[in-house]
Amino acid sequence: MVLCKVLGVLILLVAGGYVSVAVTRLERKRLRVLDGYISLLLYIKGQIGCYAMPVRDILTSADPAMLAACRGETYQGIVQPVLPLPEMIRDSRVYLEPESERLLCAFSSELGHTFREEQVTRCDYYIEALGEERRRLAESVPARARMNSALSLCCAIGAAILLW
Q1: What is the rounded distance in angstroms from the CA atom of residue 123 to the CA atom of residue 110?
Q2: Which of 79, 97, 148, 155 is the right S-S partner for 23, CB 3.0 to 4.6 Å?
Q3: CB count, 10 Å around CB of 48?
Q4: What b/e readout covers 114-139, taking b as 16+ CB neighbours within 10 angstroms?
Q5: CB-based contact 163:8 (threshold 8 Å)
Q6: How many CB atoms within 10 Å of residue 111?
Q7: Does the pLDDT of residue 54 top 90, yes or no?
């Protein structure tokens, strides 16, 4: 009977540790997704500024690794179908902070509806705003990771104590 209790406590502690690691990885992935979107906006700005390409052609010619980073995936050499920008943002919503998502949705709604010079200016604005969001998120990631780890482990320890 005691062996089963000890084994149950160990399972709960391992599960708490796993949740802690998973949540920390999610926090770091949020940074990588935001970096992917900033890279995508820089690429879009370059394509509009140099070639005046339509948005659909810009996304089609973009690096698949960059698009995978925006979706929160790792590029495996398999080319995924290119989604329109609003759909890509919607699919990566789980990795985006509300303010970052709002900025990206505003950018995608404004893209392609003004003159080239105005679009380049808008790209600069959103790149700067997302850069600020990225700096804010990067500063908070270590504290959020520690807090989530502590909460996960405390919950596992609490459950183990209650079930003992």
Answers
A1: 10
A2: 148
A3: 21
A4: eeeeebbebbeebbebbeebbeebee
A5: yes
A6: 19
A7: no
